[in-house]
Amino acid sequence: MKTEYDLSTMKSRKNPYAAKLKKSVTMRLSEDVIGYFKQMADEKGVPYQSLINLYLRDCAAQHRKIDISWKTAP
Fold it and tell me: Does residue 74 surpass a pLDDT of 80?
């Protein structure tokens, strides 16, 4: 190996994996929700944050919609 490299002659290129990188976000989740995913993650042997990411990715891929309309009292 050389002791020094001349990087000024290198050509730059875009990172081919940039679209697959994860972005850090802050979310407030209920303790019972976190507990649910932690328990499932322990059973499957994966980190719980990865499991939550996989679940949300599946929801996005399947175009799942949630009904959050609350019924009013008569």
Answer: no
